[in-house]
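@channel sequence for tomorrow's demo:
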Amino acid sequence: MKPLLPAATAWTRSKPPLLRFLDNCLSEFSAETSGHVADYIPELSKADPAYFGISLATLDGHVYEVGDSRVPFTIQSMSKPFVFALALDLLGASKVESAIGVEPSGDPFNSIRLNSENHPFNPMVNAGAIACTGLIYDSKGAEAFEQIRLALSRFAGRDLAVDEAVYSSESQTGDRNRAIGYLLKTNAVISDNVAAVLDVYFRQCAVLVTARDIAVMAATLANRGINPVTGEQVLSAYAISRTLSVMTSSGMYDYAGEWIYRIGIPAKSGVGGGILAALPARLGLGSYSPKLDKHGNSVRGIKVCEALSSHYDLHMLNRSDDVRNAVIADYDIGKSPSRRVRRPQEREILAAHEQEVRIIELVGTLSLSAVDYVSRRLAGRPRPQFVIFDLHRVTSTTRAGARLVAEAFEELAALNVTVVLSGVRRASKEWNSLREWTAELKNVRDFYLLDTAIEWAEDQIVYRYGGSIDFHETTELAEQPLLAGLSQEELTDLTSLCTIRTYQSGAKILATGDPADALYFLRSGAVHVALPDGVRLATLTAGMAFGEMALLEPTRSADVFADMAATAFVVPLKDFERFRKQHPRASECIMRNLAQLLADRLIVANAKVDILTSM
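structure tokens (generated this afternoon):
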């Protein structure tokens, strides 16, 4: 019996579940020996039939690899979807779609047959792929192959080369493809120079890749054209979505119907032994094993795809996303106001109109169905004056979702409702997706921090209902909530201990870790309290105290910054303690007030927790 590993060692040696799954696939399917290595291209017959590599790439750029995942082999027909996507972007959809169909053929990949319009059935069979290469050649001439090689390299995230031996072998034995080429020329799909077009096609099929490469390439397809490893937008989302559509219907040739029925992941195979599978918005899979079945697909590769799909229930038509999960919190300012400490008059106005500001915190993907659910949920309660949508947990926005957002915002504008967005940076993809449709709307404001957005909306409510917020107003100690209940004599004695200090906008008044040796009573201006990582805890205006935790702890636990020019009454802690001893009644009042202030803060914090956990 093996001795047990120490817990720390076992932890560092543990494997993620997906990697263990791939290991199990490698172990189990290595025993599968059926099929044969392609030999109609002589050079391909030299592949070692024992090779077996699997790789899986996630959309956050992590790549799992097992077995012979770094063994190079030629891409062959797996180049077809990428070249089709390239043609759509280079030449325009109308030109490509007028020359090549998108219907399944039901025939083997190298069938010498065209559709009823004398065009290739789709770009995944040889006739369609050669036509696609021909269109690029007509546009780019001698630069056509380099354009294709560079595009394939960008999909893979590294520079790809050509296997010259396979290229030569393919060229020498490619008479069937030549027959297809001349059939295309006869029907004006290829305009001229069949030999040059086929030379480009043979070279593109001879590009060397690995299982890891094709997993990353597949993940790029699954990620709307963005390479998850390099972050590059390789081709447009339009070209990618149309390519995935054709892969779904025709990527596995005359096995395509069975494939999508049983496995349900867009895929493409190549006679070199590779299979790539791209599950949109999820992952990319690449496998390499040279032995093929009667359809020309890798036997082991198909088994890996079958196992992945069935084990994790990944059939793309078996999705169970619940749009109700898009809303993580929905509340008004009565349940969770901003961190701004308000004066009595402001608090009264906000309490009377708390339902006029509604906050909806969203999570996940803003899809059409998610936005529709949010809009119906919003309409299910009385109309507010302000709606704040917090997007900091939103991971992506679909074009359909963004367009429906704009239409919902237009309706809100017609009802005189102001929309406030928070949690999205203006340089982000999500911002660009939203602004594409909402840029012309006049009722949309944005703040990066949710608390800032809530504070701004609260200010508007105060203004609209007769209140005022005068940051330049000067207050006295008698207006401090911490000192409520003190007699005039006690206030006079305390005032004699104070000095008035002035702070410029942006000044750091208190720093975390400093000795807590004074109390501060804000006389004018505004300051904010923040944790060392920048998280804002509270905004204070004239008439509020800060640094009061010096009464309970020896060092500062937060930073305080001046938001504008400010003045404060400052009382050294030692003088304040002497004052408390001389005035025991006042001391009792102050500690009671402090307890109430802390309780109020705890109530607000607990309310926020309740909101987030009650959905």
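heads up for whoever presents: The domain at 477-612 is CATH 2.60.120.10 (Jelly Rolls).
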